[in-house]
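Why does this matter for the project? Reviewers at the last site visit asked to see concrete outputs rather than summary tables. In response, this paragraph embeds two records directly. Each consists of the residue sequence and, immediately after it, the corresponding structure tokens. Nothing has been edited or filtered.
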Amino acid sequence: MKLSAFALLLPYLLVIPATAQTCGPVIDIGGTCDLAALTTALESTSCTIEQLFPQQDAESIAATVAGLCEYDAPVQYVEIQGTFQDDHRYFDGGGDVADGEYGFEMDTARLNRFIKNSMGDSLISWPEYEQKEEYNAANDYGANGYMTNFNIDRNAEKGSCQMNTVMCCFTDSVKDDLVDNTDVCHYDLASSPQSNHVNAGWSVFTEDESAHCVGFTWKEGEASDIYKGNALFYASMYQTATKGYTSNVPGAPMCACMEQMPVVTEAACVSATGSDLNYKFIVDRDSGEVSATHSVTMTYEDCGTDLNTRVKEVHRGTSIATAIDEYLVGSNNCDEVNADYLNDEQLLVTSATTRFTNIDGAVEEGITWKQVFGKGIFFLPPHLDAARADEEMRTLMEACVEPLGRQCMLLRKCPSCTSEVHRNIVYQRLTPFPAFQEGISTADTVDIPNLFMNQWRENNNVMHVDYELYTSVSDALAKTGEWQAPDYNNNNNNYGFPRNSGPIVHIGNQWNSYKWGGGTAHEHGFFVELSTFVIILPYLLVTPAVAHLRHQQRQLQECEGSNPETCGCDVVLQDDYRGTISSTEDGYTCMNWESQSPHSHSRTAANYPDKGLGDHNYCRNPDGEPRGAWCYTTDPSKRWSFCNVPSCTPSTTTTTTSTTTTTTASTGASTTTSTQLPTCNTPELNDLDELDLRTVLKGANSNCETALSKKKVLMIGIDGLRADVVGMTPLPNIARLKRLGTHSFWANVQSTAAAVSGPGWASMFTGVEPSKHLVDGNGDLRDLASPTVFKTVKDAFDLKIAASVSWHPLVNDFINHEDDTTLDASFLAFSDSAMAAKAREWLLSEEFDFVFVDFDGADAAGHSLGFDGYLASYQNRVVEIDSLVGTLLDAVMETSAEEEWLIVLTSDHGGEGTSHSAYDNYNRKIPFIVASNSPRVDVGFMPLADPGSQMDVLPTIMYFLGGESAIPDDLDGQVFGFKDYTRAPPPSPPGACIPDANNCGCASEKQADYRGNISVTASGKTCQAWSSQSPHSHSRTSANYPDSGLEANYCRNPDGESGAWCYTEDPFSRWELCEVPTCDTA
């Protein structure tokens, strides 16, 4: 129990009235002040404890003695400066000492007097104040008077000194220069709301600012506990008075228990120790009043080590020794610690190196990223000096030229973007950036950060000439799937990257801006690829090598019995394959793994020692590609591709619908008869919202079969659904489908008729072009000359088929006109909701094997007011349809136990304005999704080079139901999205170049593909060798442009000129175009 509040304010003496005149005048009780020590000391006198404190019972006497020992014997901290407010303001970084009106010497005079006269022989109490008692009791800080900075009450709900450690951090000095002994990393503002008056927030310190931190620690019950008040004075007010140290880290207290202080790299350590400590009780002979005092000799010194080490020594074996590393993190560790803090605590990232996985889930081994700036959850401003910000970013992006032969990639991550293809965009620079000039890019200058942040301009930034955009890192590395629809901010508006650029057509509102609101990229970060191949795996409890070895051993045990010389085990993604196949599935010859030409890379035997690499060109999978073995190719235009390595599985006895067979993986043999394939291990389609089949299907054996009686098909057609609108609009149910299979937002409609419903639906139903099925418009639907998918399925498998449609001609003029016995049920709805309700009823009944539904609302909205994702009328209809799609998926979930489902979603055409017949991407690009719980269906998206088409519907459904033999001949479509089917290369579109690199150059490539030996210009001048710097010095070398064929003195186009060219041997004519033939077109 503590004494009444008035006792705390007495300068040195606490008096207690007494009537006993036989006690005293001085009672020496030794080095311990408590009731037991006092009672023992009285035994050698004629005074008893009851005589010393007459008229008090035993409990009161105990409380009185405790109060005298705690508050009277030592010097109260409040006595040093004089008031609670002075102490409170000082420890928070202010007060008269920091900003007083009389000057530093005057304002610290009282401190200096105490240092001179009392510091060396005074025991100083822990700071406790009358003014805090009521507040602390009412606000869960305990029954005490402790300042919030130093609340050591372990019984208090909001006690703040569990680590028994205090630190002061100063950032300025009014005397000599501040001794900078640490780096400040970050600070959680919620740690000290009583100091900064902020409930929540954070600060990250990315610049090196001067700070001096010093602290001390104590252990309860030991000498350091007795003298902790002295140590506090020495670490704080002594440093201020003698060295001039003032000012707190912004937002943090200047001195407080460690839990309330900023995270820093290190801190100095001090200690205070006493000797000859002795307590005395003094009795006034006249009044009988009792007081207490003490004597001591104090020593103040440095610990001889840093604070982190000292804490671990004092608290060895306790949680404090471990926890100190969270506050004192070690020299040069701020970047890594800040990254962890913002990632783990604030869900952010900072400029520290961070690993990413690309959009399609494949791990990009060896690639690390450094953030350069960002907004929202990725908040990180660039340097305030624009020239420095540009220099830092320029240096980072150019760092890859020497080791990789290209500039480093720039990645924008944008989780808030509504278009999925904009959530991860890779910018690959092709040409050197021009010189820096702050502000908007000109013909000769650029401000690189501003180009991406606010002013996405075409100057020195032309797609296919100066840069390419990709939807994933793997596409960028493979140089495939380049975006085709650039857009720029060629006025003074503040539209940043990438304006309305899109893969096929413009997609709006995905741009970022650091000056304007608007756009959906309000949560994004820009990251530059680092040229060093550092793999950061902080989460491993064992070393990466040991972890990899254990993982590899476990997986190889599952492959026991396979033959790595002839096949690759699917469980380890063919990591075990050691055969001699040396060509890719699309016919390219593999490049030697030890070679760096024509493609530089890091997949070498030195970097991947246990992966079967070496001085050969055999297919391998050193880095865990999900589809298995692969290789770099010898073709400069094709970086890498997968190989057609057979899959082998462990010895397994499998049961099929017709026979029981045993397949032995060790033989490497494979069979083609479907009844001899193992049964697919199909996961239940029980939660489309949560189930992500990437983890289930990657590496799963796709060489399997499921009984026809277990297979079901849901085909969803959405009339007039424009591809880019699906990409830019939040559609949660279509997103559910995407997670379950392969999707394309840039699939093609048929190519020989206008983009109208008749030929679109006919090609979807029949798998052939209008030139074959003979439906060219909406007026000749009954001319359909090819069998529909419904008739084909009925004839081949005799399944029960139902169709619920909103556009009635699909049943009346196509399906029933062809054969009115094909459908087992049909429903001609007059609204999308009615159509969906009937289809849902069929799905829940489990009566039908194949259900087709047609939504017409998007097409109606487009014809009414426009096919445009920015129009509420069109977008709202698409959102409504997505909701109805969700009801169908829910029905599938309810009934799909032990079934294998194929769900196909696509459209008949796109649209622009209020029509859809024009020959452009707005009209002729559509979404296409194939979703399934079958391990045969791949997960990801189709490349731009082969985006699929609506004619793929029929062959995909037939392949799912009956394998390759079930697909009719002479189709124009192909199977879409299946891992166990290899698609043929798509035909060249009309007008496409027919390449012949040795003899001509494609106009579409500006002859950049030319690799012939013409070596004179159009005017007859001899070309200068690319390796020569005379008579013209230049930067167009094979080192800077490694994929441009810069050999000998042959005409080439490495940098996007209008055609092939060369430097000349004429000193007065720097360069000229060559007369290289232009290749023919299809």
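We now turn to the second protein, recorded in exactly the same manner.
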Amino acid sequence: MQRIRETLARLTRASSRESRDTSHGPRLDRVGRTSSSAGSSRERILYSADGKGPCILHDGVQNGEEGIDIVFVHGLFGSRLGSYTKGGVCWIRDLLGQDLPNCRIISWGWSSTLSTGDAFAGQSEILLADISRVRSGTRRPIIFIGHGLGGLLIKEALVTAALSRIYGAHAELGNIYPRTVGCIFLGTPHVRSGKRTLGECVAATAVLSPSMPAPQLLRALRGSNQFLETLHSTFLLVSRDIKVICIREKLPTTITASIDMIQDDNGVELGTGTVQTMVPKDAVVYDNFNVTKDELPTNHLDLCRYKSRDDAGYIKILSHIQKVTSGPSQAEIEAQEPRNQDILNALHFDTMMERELLIDPAYGQTCEWILSPKVSPFKSFLNAKDPVLWISGKAGSGKSTLMKYAWKSEEMRHELRQGWAKGGELVMARFFMFEGGNRIQKTYEGFLRSTLYQILSTRRELIKVAFPSFFDCSWPPPIQFTSTTNLNQGFYSLFAHMSEKLRMVIFIDGIDEYRIMERKDHYEPGDIEVQYDKEEGDESWGRSKWRTDSHTEIAKLINSMADKDVIKFVISSRELPVFEEAFANFPRIRLQEHTEKAIAEYIAGRLDDEAPGLPDTVNLCAELAHKSQGDILWARLALDMVIDGSLRTLRSTLNSLPTRLGGTEGLYMKMIENLKPEYQNDACRIFHLVLRAQQPPSIITLAFADQGHLDRYHNVLKVVQDTKRPFTKESLQQLTDSMHRRLRICCVGLLEAESKLAPDTIETARRVVFNHQTTKEWVGRRDVWKVLPNIHPVDDFDLDFSLLSGCVRHLKAFETIQPPVLTWPNVRFRPDAWLIVANALRYAERIDGEAKNTEIYAQLLDELDASNQRSWAAALNNHTPLVEDPDWYDRKLPELLKKHWAGFEPMEAGKSPKRKDFLSLVVQANLVQYVQYKLHQLDEASRGRKAQELLVYVVSPKGDGFSACVSLSGDYLDFHHDMPDSRLLDVLYEAGADPRDDPQVWLRALKAGRHYFSRGSATMTHLMETYASKRLMLNRERWVAAVKSLLAHGANPHIELQVQTPSSAEDNHSSKSTTVTAIDYIRETLEGEPEYAIDLLQLETMMGRRPSVGLAR
């Protein structure tokens, strides 16, 4: 936000400067060589004392939008003409205009006095204002070409223009950004190089200027490292649809300076006062989808000086300019459609509309008041400039129902089109947050994916505007498409390019249910645990630091996104202090002030339908509505109790109803107290099974889990009994019907099974969820269950065992409804079936090491393996190819039947991880106790072979792709991205594994380190984008522990391995292979990581090398 505020302030200054310049008349130098004498006179203008600002060297465009503007920005101490002149030829004036006739060539000059605060901000303001003035009245595309530090001015100007565009400030300046189609950087440093910071690389570039900079300037540039890093990261965000070409020199430049002055490790001192140096080569290029890298066999100054058309440098740069200016052909446009669908598929997730579908529609006319200008500010908000309308209300007051009603209102859309959005393109989206759902339903990622999917699925032409760089790469992309960083870039790209026309309205329901899940592991348990220190108001539902921080974050996000003229938010939440402060200046609807009449209407309607003939209905409705205090959930639950009770006790029932929902004396407690003691215990167990579940369980999984894992009369696993009595569709229907009754009777309707959303899913389609967020919060309180004398305490270990059993039994029953294996277009497990497998292994991970009866625990997992293998074989044998394929029966089927189901995980991106058997999967799931038990069951020879086979799974991840379950559930964690528990190594060594028997184990373990220590690693990016640094740090610690363990057991530190390093070729994806020893590879991996300095010392000592790192004292 600080960056944004500073940028908008500079925009104001730049806009003011432009206005002043315009009022005094434009000052444009024009140089066009019509004759030698004319050219000479015009050159004198360029070399005058005021050789700054824009100078038009060639103007071959006609009036209108045809053609292109090419803007050149020279480097430090350069000039508008001299920087591009060699042998008397100024190529940007004398050559380029003839080869690109339909263009306007502008050379912009700038002062070399850079401020020490933010070194390039002031000059970029002037650049932005000048080019905006020159381009007044035209929308032609622009290419910027910058030499040396001039490239940094271009980056800063484009960042400033982009933020202007996004936030709707000074549109005349911001309009430069969406017209920019390309940037060519000649020897411009973008990133750090080796141990040198970006600031040091920029200073090293500055000394290559025509004049030597003063020491003070070099110190200022080195000290601007943080500013420069921020500039580059922001430029990456705004430049995804701009074609970027980075060209670096291959030859050093000879300058007059001391080696101490340039502080360059690569500098070569030739003699007294003479040094050869160049821009740090790794700093000049960077990797991205839209970036092309190139190099020229010349020095830094000659990168932008060519004396003829035959000059190799001129030929290359002309080619790059022509490639940037060429638009897509019709065939290319048509070819984009499959990629459009790929992107939409990646954005979609199955539970996107789940919460909205669970919300009951408004009863009768109970919500119509919101559209009445006499009682509600809603319509006036639709026509006003206010960016946010806050609908607040107590827990259970009907906010979601009202939001759903307002969202579906055609009158609301008509009002927007005729008012605020008139003349623009109205796009709308909604997101109903759901704390009781899976992870993605309550996070920023879920909001972005849902919003982008809704917008782009109806406006497919905007897909390339939002995600341009993903049209020029392979699919699946090498990075996780659904990372928050990428989604955020896509969201803001829409504003940056469409703000002239786009008018966006977004409804967000339940922002108090937002959670910062990706940083949850940053908090201590005490910060997450809910405290109940208030008895009244919405805070009585509990508070925690983590929740409060989540509420603060979503409030800031909404405020930052609403800081634009082209977006409106309608949001709803409880009345929490965080929101009271954040939205104090926006219009607001306090729901409980409007709902008493609507609640009375709702009660009257239900009484007419469900209890006709009830006496004194009018007074009953009024009394219940008054006691509800605007809480529609309270009214619904209270009415259920009244209707289900006896008419003779109606008055006493009504008088005994608590006026609040939660707490130890609220309506929820009253409902549980009214149950029989045995039902109270059943309710407690079912509630806690759902709370303990990895994600909301399906009704089938919950029904099995509710039965427990063991038949205590016969001391036999329930899943074993299932083998003797296979399931049928009828028996499964009876099971789910019975569970529905238990939810209704024992759980008094506070838990409910979703309606089936899709015909081809089981696990996600019939999930059991709490009927309201307040229910989940109340059930999770420890104190409420202590009040009930007949409740048996629940044990987390027993709950996990029951949930594991429920998953295994569900998998055995899965094929009763549909095969768990898909055979088209390729053979793989169904994502919803694999999700049950994954949940089972997560429950097993909780149990592992704690199970007192290892045999029972192992038998349960064995049943999972055996059942899936039987289903695998059955699905393959029952498959009939769509077209006649003799090869299927002769070769493919026999080969597949020999393979194990664990190796066919359904993938969203990449290939399924290779797994030979179930043990290779459970190793990745960290089931140490189970692996040890299974190995001990083998004879000594078999045990050693199996341990050796598993060793490679323990020391390195086995795949780089992403499971299809990620998009299915939103909170799925891949097994193959994480280093397994290092305790497994001791288990395998004890069983006979030896790293010396297979050098590939050691080599793969070494290479695994780059997954967690390299910024270019897709795995590291995935870890950082999902569960933040704690999970990444755990992987790093396990990798270091594995390397130490392998060395201690004889791994060869001097073995050589082949590694791929980036090539200097123009091809972005090219690399070259180099050979390095293990000891050097480890040092390169850990070097520069302060947290692992001691580990590196220990490792180098273990490998027999004198430590090469020092420790700060």
